[in-house]
Amino acid sequence: MLEYEQNLWQQGKQLIAGVDEVGRGCLFGDVVAAAVILPRGLVLEDVNDSKKLSEKKRDALYEVIMAEALAIGIGIVDVRTIERINIKQAARLAMKTAVGRLDPDPDFLLVDAEKVDSDTEQLAVIHGDALSQSIAAASIIAKVTRDRMCLQWDQQFPEYGIAIHKGYATKMHRARIMEFGATPMHRKTFLRNLEAEQQVLF
Predict the structure, then answer these.
(1) Ligand-binding site membership of 105 (annotated)
(2) What is the Cα–Cα distance from 129 to 120, expressed in whole angstroms?
């Protein structure tokens, strides 16, 4: 998990930021990105793609990363902006915002399969959250941040089970949309893609 970082450290790069986002494929809610600079030599046991970790393990690693990181930036892009500029551009904007909130500034970005709109030198790593500790750390911060937002959204819209499925297109979520209609937090452009097969009305 440190091969990419080791190569960059050997090239003289000191402040390497991992960057990742969560919520791209959801029907509901904002997209969240995180950028994380970890200290050189830190090894996080069991760190991995956040989706492969239990909630308990993610929460524990979140606390460790928050305590140990040299810098953490978080970017959030809301549903209205997602609808206006499309989800791919919204995810990139969230990443750009997260990187822009790092202090100190990074001298290299390791990004999970994307390009960030930044002058900082960077590398897109396919499946980066499973290959780079820095990207995996960003994945965990973004995932836990968004999951906690889902708990708040669940209180606003208790009929939909947001705390359970986190806004993804599960069978339960689709059924609740069919029963209750869409909320202002649902991504209408995503629902249109489901409309033909699901008869979703909003």
Answers:
(1) no
(2) 20
